[in-house]
Design a protein that fits this description.
Layout lengths: L9 E2 L2 E2 L5 E13 L2 E12 L3 E6 L8 E6 L2 E12 L8 E12 L1 H9 L4
Antiparallel strand pairs: 1-2, 3-4, 3-6, 4-5, 5-8, 6-7, 7-8
C-alpha cells in the first residue's frame, strides 16, 4: 500500500503551514479599499485550510482586505502575497489570500478543504 507524501511543499526557505489542494474554479474577488470595492474575476489555483491562491488581472497589495465568492461560498480574507505570473500570454497576478471568515457556504468550504487530508 502506498501512502501519499503528506509533507508541506517547501517554497524557498519557508515551509507552508497547510497542505495545498489543486483547484480550478471560477472566482469573484472584491478588493475593499476604504469605501470602494473593486471587483475582478479569476480562477482559484489551490486551496488549503488557511487560505487559497487565485490568478487574476490586478495587482493586490499585501494587507488588502478581500471578499471572495465562488460556487455557494462567500469568504473574507487578507492578501498575503501577490506576484506577476511568469510565462503568461497576458499580464496576470498570482495572489495568496489568508481566509479570515466563511460567511456563506461553510459546508462547501469544509468539503473542499477536508479533501486535503485524505
Amino acid at each position: 500500500m502506498e501512502f501519499p507524501d503528506r509533507r508541506p511543499k517547501v517554497r524557498g526557505f519557508k515551509q507552508r503551514r497547510h497542505f495545498r489542494l489543486s483547484a480550478d474554479l471560477p472566482v469573484h474577488v472584491f478588493a475593499v479599499r476604504g469605501s470602494r470595492k473593486d471587483e475582478e474575476t479569476g480562477r482559484i489555483l489551490d486551496v488549503s485550510e488557511g487560505g487559497l491562491c487565485f490568478v487574476g488581472a490586478r495587482y493586490l497589495p499585501p494587507g488588502t482586505s478581500v471578499n471572495i465568492e465562488f460556487e455557494d461560498c462567500r469568504l473574507t480574507g487578507e492578501v498575503r502575497h501577490c506576484r506577476m505570473r511568469e510565462y503568461a500570454a497576458h499580464v496576470q497576478f498570482v495572489t495568496g489570500v489568508r481566509i479570515q471568515q466563511v460567511l456563506d457556504g461553510q459546508e462547501s468550504w469544509n468539503g473542499l478543504t477536508q479533501a486535503i487530508g485524505q
